[in-house]
Amino acid sequence: MTTIAVVSAGLSERSSTRLLAGKLASAVQDSLPHKASVEMVDLREHAHDVINALLTGVPTGALGGLVRTVADADALIAVTPVFNASYSGLFKSFFDILETDSLAGKHVLMGATGGTERHSLVLEHALRPMFAYLRAVVVPTAVYAATSDWGGASGLEKRIALAGKELADLLAHRAPSAKPDRYANVTPFAELLGGLRK
Amino acid sequence: MQFGLFTVGDVTTDPTTGRTPSEAERIKSMVAIAFKAEEVGLDVFATGEHHNPPFVPSSPTTMLGYIAARTEKLILSTATTLITTNDPVKIAEDFAMLQHLADGRVDLMLGRGNTGPVYPWFGKDIRDGIDLAIENYHLLHRLWREDVVDWEGRFRTPLHSFTSTPRPLDGKPPFVWHGSIRSPEIAEQAAHYGDGFFANNIFWPKEHFQRLIELYRQRFEHYGHGSADQAIVGLGGHVFMRKNSQDAVREFRPYFDKAPVYGHGPSLEEFTEQTPLTVGSPQEVIDKTLTFREYFGDYQRQLFLLDHAGLPLKTVLEQLDILGEEVLPVLRREFAALRPAHVPAGPVR
After folding, report:
1. Which of A176, B54, B200, B204 could covalently link to B236 via disulfide, CB atoms 3.0 to 4.6 Å apart?
2. Beta bridge partners of B151
3. Which residues contact A158 (CB under 8 A, 6 or more apart)?
4. Residue B349: what pLDDT?
5. Domain residues for B265?
6. At A114, is the secondary structure helix, strand, or coil?
7. CB distance B154–A196 less than 8 Å?
8. Does B345 reside within a domain?
9. Is B343 a member of any domain?
10. pLDDT (tens digit, 9 = 90+) per residue, B101-114?
11. Chain A residue with minimum CA distance to B267
12. Which residues contact B14 (CB under 8 A, 6 or more apart)?
């Protein structure tokens, strides 16, 4: 089955970041022709483990499992609050501890939340370059939700639906990704040595 | 099964006194710890190799030669010898020389080294780490087994009609372990040669190492060196003991909290729960060490890290007394009773 990992870096309980992440996940599911399983990762609950992993290299607690969940998922929805004109430190730190190439080729939908509309280009100027560097395939529509978007006719629901459909369309046209297993598919020794002879 | 110590050789300020040992003191402490290891009945002393402060052991065979002269049974080893940045010719010569001086009580563990700048300091590139390990060991393996070697490779000046001297003692090269914490390629390399594989599991959750060791065992069998459960596996361990568990925790906590590797990170409780670190009574050390066999199968070498994070020499020597008196006899008995007859008790040169 298609799996979608949803990473939310919201800091308060019932944060608007978490709310946006949930709505984006629902929008993708609504547009998909088949069922998908969704794994929510609330970074707030694992903040200490994230810092420990940065300091020691050891993914303590549940973090080891979450890192694998994200690496193995067919798609990623990543949502951060905007702090000081960029993603939050916790959001960036989580992506800093992923194994190299974890996001390579992965379909990603980005979201961000902030107090005012003025920060909306953070998605284009901070998040998109990071995911490009990580070689993810990011859908064109990224969804920014300012506080005021949650009331009135802001078009937020429309943007969420559009972004969800973009990710769903990508997912619908590809089989669930094979998870490469470094341990099961080790390069035979003759090849390791032979490669040096060329 | 063999039991021993491995040391990093860090010069670290004692957080409880603020005192920092000199390099001379630290080096002399390391050899004092090695002598004590023999005295309390341990089998192996292994030193790290580092080329940057705050670490002192840059010249392992010099240190091991000194220890060899003043011990009789102890196996002198390394954890690790840098197969990437050392010249394999020099490794071949240094360790063959040590073999002769130590009457054969020598083996070594090869590792890549994860300190980035060391590579350029020695004219290498960390991105070639795996390739360097593969090619350099291929040459080292030949230098110890062929009297005259012709060689051309990617990383080293060619050799023509070269003989590495002295030849290995009695024509038998030292036993080699390949250490890795995350590279299937190194497990594959160890399996191909029928060498030992050392998984320094002290910082990582066990699931990761179960896969790495299982891969090594399967490939060891694939290459015809024996059945998977006969592959030669070594593991790390990390302990601090006092008679009462609470005393051990109270005394070790200030060292843990400021230790260079994990200090200011997870709590001592989190770390002991999730990694092989045991801070407690000798019985707790026995219990935890025996679980390694359940996770990884019968294995041949257990190395403990005791002297780091600024612990004073006196404390480390006390730890060795406890290890020798209360832990070692029980572990030897228990592991021997559990090990099937067809599984080797230790590495064979």
Report:
1. B200
2. B159
3. none
4. 66
5. 2-338
6. strand
7. yes
8. no
9. no
10. 999 999 999 999 98
11. A52
12. B20, B255, B310, B311, B312
Q: What is the complex's ipTM, to 2 decimals?
A: 0.84
pLDDT in tens, A89-123: 999 999 999 998 999 999 999 999 999 999 999 99
Paired strand residues for A143: A111
Beta-bridge mates of residue B241: B280
Neighbours of A24 (CB within 10 A): 27
The answer to whether the beta carbons of residues B232 and B196 sit under 8 Å apart is yes
For each successive 10 residues of chain A (198 residues), what is the average pLDDT?
95 92 97 94 95 86 91 96 97 96 96 95 98 97 96 92 97 74 85 78
Q: According to the model, what pLDDT value does residue A177 have?
A: 65
Q: Are B321 and B282 in contact (CB under 8 A)?
A: no
- Per CB-CB distance under 8 Å, the chain B contacts of A196 are 131, 134-135, 153-154
Which amino acid would we find at residue B319?
Answer: Q
Buried b (16+ CB within 10 A) or exposed e, B202-240: bbbbbebbbbbbbbbbbbbbeeebbebbbbbbbbbbbbb
In A, minimum Cα distance to B187 occurs at A186
Residue with tokens 């694998």: A68
- How far does the CA of residue B209 sit from the closest CA of chain A (Å)? 11
The continuous run of DSSP H or E covering A88 comes out as: none
CATH number, position B35: 3.20.20.30
CA distances from A162 to A36, A98, B12, B77 (A): 18, 29, 57, 62
Q: Tell me if residue B195 falls in helix, strand or coil.
A: coil
Is residue B346 included in any domain, yes or no?
A: no
